[in-house]
Design brief:
Blueprint lengths: L7 E4 L2 E4 L4 E7 L14 H14 L3 E5 L12 H18 L4 E5 L3 H9 L4 E4 L9 H8 L4 E4 L17 H19 L4 E4 L8 H9 L11 E3 L5 H4 L10 H13 L2 E6 L2 H16 L4
Parallel strand pairs: 3-4, 3-10, 4-5, 5-6, 6-7, 7-8, 9-10
Antiparallel strand pairs: 1-2
Helix pairs in contact: 1-2, 2-3, 4-5, 8-9
Length: 285
């Protein structure tokens, strides 16, 4: 499949062009996320953080109420809904022009978020944890589906992850999922290799360097590297202490074809994109 020069996403009638890289700001409304758990659990604090990210240049706000860090506690659908629904409603009320994504692998959560006006679904399981998810997204037509690769579940994914061939195994996973989503009627798809989701630190770096190979599948790529363990464990530090180093990996991801960066630190990532774009416009990358 030939790779297009650039992509567009139809977000419920609003077109998001990916001719330049875009930023997805992370809004975790959980008590136990690995980096910012508990900070934005209340709708007021979540709304303030969303405003700050929008003002800093986030193109999309990704709202998640289920912590997907390794070995995170499982929670009920009702608990997840109680976390995300008030936040979606608050942001839609105060910032009606903001593009919103729901970070969930559960079709019921996706449906309630859709009813409240979200524009895309970010599914860490690619439909593997809820078989109703892909048919549901397909029925909506104008909602992009961000499909990630994960080996196992958040509770098991770091228990000795193994691949016969890391890049080829993920490639074949994407091929199968592309066929499944097309058959379901999904119009716009974004592929996420899933850094940190069932990969060792070395596997994450190998995957990042090979990310450009997935461009040949013909869909835009998302890189979620922000504050991941491949950074802070490799440097023997903490998630909040790797901001400069994260920008190095963000630049590498952009050079390897990423069109969306999913980040905690929007201001810094925006500057990285600006410099990358300047280099690209001058023909240096």
């Amino acid at each position: 499949m030939s790779r297009p020069d650039f992509y567009t996403l139809d977000c419920r009638g609003r077109v998001l062009a990916l001719d330049t890289p875009r930023l997805m700001g992370i809004l975790n409304v959980t008590p136990d996320s690995f980096s910012d758990g508990g900070r934005f659990l209340h709708p007021d604090s979540a709304l303030s953080h969303a405003e700050a990210m929008i003002n800093a240049g986030a193109d999309i706000i990704d709202i998640g109420g289920y912590s997907s860090r390794p070995y995170a506690d499982d929670i009920s659908v009702e608990e997840e809904l109680s976390r995300v629904n008030p936040v979606i409603e608050a942001i839609r009320h105060h910032f009606p022009e903001a593009l919103l994504s729901i970070d969930t692998f559960r079709s019921r959560v996706a449906q309630e978020a859709y009813d409240r006006g979200i524009h895309m679904v970010n599914d860490i399981s690619g439909g593997q944890l809820d078989p109703a998810m892909i048919p549901l997204i397909g029925s909506w037509k104008q909602v992009p589906y961000l499909l990630m690769h994960m080996q196992g579940t958040p509770q098991t994914m770091q228990d000795s992850p193994h691949y016969d061939d890391l890049v080829q195994d993920i490639w074949m996973y994407f091929v199968q999922k592309i066929e499944e989503t097309r058959a379901a009627g999904i119009m716009d798809l974004v592929l996420d290799p899933g850094f940190g989701f069932g990969k060792t630190i070395d596997q994450n770096f190998r995957l990042l360097d090979a990310m450009d190979q997935f461009q040949e599948l013909g869909y835009p790529l998302l890189a979620g590297l922000s504050r991941k363990s491949m950074l802070y464990k490799a440097l023997d530090t903490h998630p909040e202490d790797v901001l400069p180093q994260a920008q190095v990996l963000h630049d590498h991801a952009l050079r390897r074809g990423a069109r969306i960066l999913r980040v905690h630190d929007v201001t810094e990532a925006r500057k990285t994109i600006q410099l990358f774009q300047r280099m690209q416009d001058n023909g240096f990358v």
